[in-house]
Specification:
Blueprint lengths: L1 H5 L10 E3 L5 H13 L4 E5 L3 H9 L3 E4 L15 E6 L3 H7 L3 E9 L13 H6 L2 E4 L7 H12 L10 E5 L3 H9 L6 E5 L1
Bound molecules: NADP nicotinamide-adenine-dinucleotide phosphate.
The site of NADP nicotinamide-adenine-dinucleotide phosphate (NAP) has 23 residues, from helix 2.
Length: 191
């Protein structure tokens, strides 16, 4: 979110923001944070019917089903999203890049849907869009402190985060749920 804001995303003009993997651990928190910050036009990419109400309860204005994204046929497509927070990568990210509006940006932090990215230079050289790589593992401590401060104050969503706690013996059921796309939010294993 900070990377996108550094590249022009602002509540002042209420841009259209797409969050992929929206009911997953990263995506669900991203939607809640965006909503808490004051963004209204958040679109959540979902795959299943039961994810619709969840995404909306997190703060999404509407949902887009992954199969509605269309196919990757043209290097440039109708401009729909000003900013994209992508956690899925692969074909999903590839098909979204041609739909990013002029001057928009996409942050990429995940590969839940694959590591391969298929694109052309055209969205970059004709629409001036940006791809922003996000790593959370080796972020310098100074930047972490800024982020932690925000999360502890203005961006505090700790009361509403989708978290459930399990013990080790129920872990196989959770893993099955993840594999079947039935898992929501974050699961903490109490050891
Ligand atoms: N860069 C970093 O520092 C950093 C930090 C944390 C996480 N990550 C990465 O970010 C990604 C997301 O992490 P997470 O913890 O949020 O994972 P997660 O809880 O498993 O959520 C993944 C989400 O992606 C969706 N998804 C998976 N494959 C998809 C596809 N082909 N098309 C559309 N949606 C798809 C899932 O939908 P269903 O529920 O329908 O399956 C789910 O909503 C992972 O790749 C993780 O490794 C990176």
């Amino acid at each position: 979110i900070m990377a996108l804001q550094e590249n022009g995303m602002s509540t002042k003009n209420q841009p259209n923001i797409l969050v992929t993997g929206s009911t997953g651990g990263v995506g669900s928190i991203a939607i809640q944070l965006l909503s808490k910050i004051g963004y209204n036009n958040i679109f959540a990419l979902v795959r299943k019917d039961h994810q619709v109400d969840i995404a909306k309860s997190l703060g999404a204005a509407d949902v887009i089903f992954a199969n509605e994204l269309g196919e990757l046929k043209k290097p440039l497509n109708k401009q729909k999203y000003d900013f994209v927070l992508d956690t899925v990568g692969g074909d999903v990210a590839s098909v979204i890049i041609p739909q990013i509006s002029y001057g928009g940006s996409m942050s990429m932090c995940g590969n839940a849907g694959g590591i391969k990215l298929t694109t052309t230079v055209l969205p970059f050289i004709l629409r001036g869009i940006n791809l922003l790589g996000i790593d959370s593992v080796n972020v310098p401590i100074n930047k972490r402190k800024v982020i932690w401060y925000e999360i502890a104050n203005e961006w505090n969503i700790s009361q509403t985060t989708l978290v459930n706690e399990i013990t080790l013996d129920t872990l196989p059921e959770k893993i099955e749920a993840i594999k079947n796309g039935q898992h929501l939010g974050r699961t903490i294993i109490k050891y």
